[in-house]
Amino acid sequence: MSTPPDLTKAAAAVADSSSVVERLHATCCEPGRSPRMERLAATLTEIGAAMYRAGEDPTAAAQAASLIEEAGAQVGWLQVACCSEKRLPMYTTILANLTAAHMVLDQHGH
Question: What's the CA angle centered on 17, arms 103 and 52, to 5 degrees?
Fold first, then answer.
């Protein structure tokens, strides 16, 4: 069984978020945030892996949903702690992607 197209699209949105986090991390001026950015990047990687398995494994869908919620909290902390308005659109993109992925999982009854 292959991954349904909507889950593939949702996983792509999570991958886009990973790219955005890489850009954020590269431009971060506060060394204390680096470990949190690295943790967010790791969480996004975990979400992507779970999303690809979610079509065949219902527990993976639940795991992905839980990780998305965790990533949202991580993004929220970073967004509030970020001192640059220039970065706000990047956080918005990440949150929009996470929301879209979570909605797909809701449709699959995670």
Answer: 60
Q: What is the pTM of this model?
A: 0.88
Q: What are phi and psi of 59, to 5 degrees?
A: -70, -30
Tokens encoding 95: 């949150």
Domains, in order of start, for the chain: 5-107 (1.20.1440)
Token pair 């890489």: residue: 22
36 close to 77: Cβ distance less than 8 angstroms: yes
List the pLDDT tens digit at each of the 110 positions of the chain.
456 788 888 999 999 999 999 988 887 766 666 888 899 999 999 999 998 888 888 899 999 999 999 999 999 999 888 767 888 899 999 999 999 999 998 887 66
